[in-house]
């Protein structure tokens, strides 16, 4: 039986906690031998979303097979937030020194840093906190814009949903990809992402504008990403002239509709390649006639 202990601090983000907890709970349902527990320095822990959680205040004795995971908390900055006592940090440090695994989601990386576990190691955190983490722990190497980093049994991940990716990866390394895939299906997770995939996707990066017409055009392109979409067809479907489509889209996103579709295709192809597809097969699956255009766009 592997014990997974979640170390909670006030203001904990529920998805930072519940995503990994659901993965390990589903693994337990499959008979893979996981027991979940929750510890904190007070019995009641308010979450960032307003729900109060109850935790054990006794730090358990763990074996090297066990895992401690620190979820993130509401933190526009790391300094003076997520406070824990020296005894709790020593417990975390001693578990790793004995051969155990420690992990974090989002701001939880700061707890590992205060325990001295980031020094000389590669790590990551949410993109809004990377600069501060780098300043606070100059002996650490902060890897930017990735989902998670593993370095000698210290595992750090980006924000919120990336904790699911991290824990599915742990299931894969311990029990194989079939077990991880089964859990992902149970959780209705679209796909298990590799650690080096970007935190910010094309869809998120170019959706921060407020132009409803452009959002409708993006919906069309995303739904029909693999299709040949002419400017004339986009204009017809959006009820605008071709000139208006080009002008509005470029102003809102900084690119043409064709470039946007290409960016979506390349991002999806990169994901497929990262999961074992060849460049040729990935190119065909995302709508390119052959791999030449995909190689050209990737080289940019």
TrEMBL record:
Domain of life: Bacteria
Family annotation (InterPro entries): Class_I_gatase-like, DJ-1/PfpI, Homeodomain-like_sf, HTH_AraC, INH-QAR
Metal-binding in keyword set: no
CDD domains given in the database record: GATase1_AraC_1
Pfam family, one: HTH_18
Gene3D superfamilies assigned: 3.40.50.880, Homeodomain-like
Gene Ontology molecular function: DNA-binding transcription factor activity; sequence-specific DNA binding
Domain HTH araC/xylS-type positions: 215-300
Organism: Kibdelosporangium aridum
Keyword Transcription regulation: yes
Keyword annotations from UniProtKB, A to Z: DNA-binding, Transcription, Transcription regulation
Protein name: Transcriptional regulator GlxA family, contains an amidase domain and an AraC-type DNA-binding HTH domain
